[in-house]
Structure formats: C-alpha cells, structure tokens
Amino acid sequence: TETRRRQVATWLRPDFDVADALFMLEERYALGSPLRADDFPDRDVQWFAAFDLDMDGVWNLDEFTRWTQSAADLVVELGFAGDEDNAARQVSGRVITAGGEEQHLGADGIVRVAIATVPCEIRAIDAVPIFPATADDFPVWKQWDTDQDGTLSNEEYERIRNVLNLPMSAVDKDSDMRVTVAEFGTAMQRRQRVTRELLTLQVGADRAPFWSLLDQDHDDQLSEREMQQAEQRLREYRGTGQTLARAALPQTLRLEFTRGTANEPTGRLVPPVGIQLSVSDKRVSAPAWFTQLDRNGDGEVSWREFLGPKSQFDKLDQNGDGFLQADECRNQ
C-alpha cells in the first residue's frame, strides 16, 4: 500500500512544522509507536519538550492532543459585506487577545494590539474586484477594442489578458475567436465569485519602522504637527554619535488579511476597502470654515493655514498646542 503525504499548512510558530508532526503522528501511531524527541529535527526539540509533560522523551496521545488544543494568543473575527450587488463594501471585525482584551477594527480596517510584548498591527482588506454589470458601465472596453468592432480579437485580448489571468479559450464560449462584452462580463463575474472565497494572510515585520515612528496616527501621511514633533521623537532612538540606529527603532508585527487576489493589482478594478482613512473621514464633524482652511486635510488647522488674526487663533486654540482641532472649533 502506497502512503501519500498530505499537504498541511506550515504552523506559524518559528522553526516548527506542524505538517511534519501530523505526518509522523499518523505513521507512528498507526504502527502503535508514539512520537519521540529523536523524530524531530534539532531545531524543534524545544517545542517537543515544552509539551512532553511527564518528561519521558515521548509524546503520548494525551500530550499531543494538549498541544493541538493550546490556547490561542490571538483570535481574529472578520466580516465582509456588500459585494453581492457591487455596493460599497464594508470590512468589520474584532480581535480578542489571550488576556481577554477585545478591540474592533476601525473605519480604516486596522486594529492595533499587543501579543505578549510584541506590538501588532492587524489589517483587513477587501480586494475582490467589483466588475461592471453592463458594457455601458465599462468604459475601458472601448480602449481595448482598438478596431471598434464591438469584440476583442485574439491580439486585442492578449494585451489585456492579465485582467482576468484566463486564456482566451476560457472566455470565448462560442469558440469564434472573438470575445464579446457579454462573454467578458460573464468571465469577470465567475472570477469575482472565486476570489470572494479566497482569504490570504501575510505576516511580517513593519517594512518602514522609521515612517511608522513619525506617522503617529497611522494615516499614511505626515501632518504638520507630526513633522514638528519628528525631531523630539527621533531623539529617543538616537545611538552613539547622534546617529539613528535602525535596530533601535520599535518593531511592529503586521498581520494583513486580504480577501481576494492579494498579489494581483491588475485584477483590482476599484481600490480595495480598508487601506486608509479618506480625508473626508477626518473632516466629517468639522465646521465648513474649518474644512476650507485645512488645506492639507490632516484634520487640524495650523497658524500658517489660518487666515484670521493671531489673537483669534489663540482664542480658538483652547489647549494651546499651536493647532486648531475640529472639537475646539465646532461651536464657533
């Protein structure tokens, strides 16, 4: 009898492969033998020992079961809604830590928590492409149809093949070597149904710790206030000789959940939901005059942006920090 190894995802813990453990478990226990420390590579011995409760050098079934049911450091619940009719989609969810702390995703699809002592940023992105329902809603078709005959020839289709990543034969249902708007729309809808079921998790360190240090509100832009405070914040991390050591910068672990085709920007016909707050979100409760003066859209009005006299600015600046916030000006 041929035994085939089943493909099981690699466990996220460092230097431990759960696929190997499961495969060895099937083999050994099928033959009436338990798992032993010698069955594991040297780098995994510490993980083995942590669950070898009686320290006899053997994993019995109870010990292995206890390992597979170990408490989670983090529970992430996500909800994606609104894509059935191509409406404005929403990403919602919550994160529960091992200590019972619960936080909900913000309007930007981001929540920040700590796993043990490691700061983590969790992002949820809906990258399922929204496809037009009719040709009238699909203006780029005219650009693709270079001879304007209402269909795409093989040559025309090959130029835009990466939109669907499908061969022409999979789109051209009547096999006439021409792709009509209806055929292309049908293929796009099939693609949308498939990508809706895909959820990708990417885990890695923050690739721009320097930027994250300065961008205190994590809106992917530096406000005037943040630029003014940059020198003070960087002083905390300077090394010998007044230099800034990268190793001294705080490191954040980023977990990014993406529904759809995470690595296929050409298939993304609209911007994904949950990347960053829009400028309008920051101005939603601000008076009209405040919004007009806030030219850079950072949610604050500096003295440089203010058009009135300094005495009026100082009167509005209730906390004396040199910036006007919407809360300070809402009733003015």
Give the helices and strands, then pairings:
Elements: H1 18-30, E1 35-36, H2 45-51, E2 58-59, H3 61-68, E3 74-81, E4 90-97, E5 102-104, E6 110-115, E7 118-127, H4 140-144, E8 151-152, H5 154-159, H6 168-171, E9 179-180, H7 181-195, E10 199-205, H8 209-214, H9 224-228, H10 230-235, E11 253-260, H11 279-282, H12 288-293, E12 300-302, H13 310-316, E13 323-325, H14 326-329
Parallel strand pairs: 7-11
Antiparallel strand pairs: 1-2, 3-4, 4-5, 6-7, 8-9, 10-11, 12-13
Summarize the structure.
With 332 residues, the protein is an alpha+beta fold. The chain is built from 14 helices and 13 strands. It has four domains: 18-68, no CATH class; 74-126 and 199-267, no CATH class; 135-195, Orthogonal Bundle (Recoverin, domain 1); 279-329, EF-hand (Recoverin, domain 1, Orthogonal Bundle), CATH 1.10.238.10.
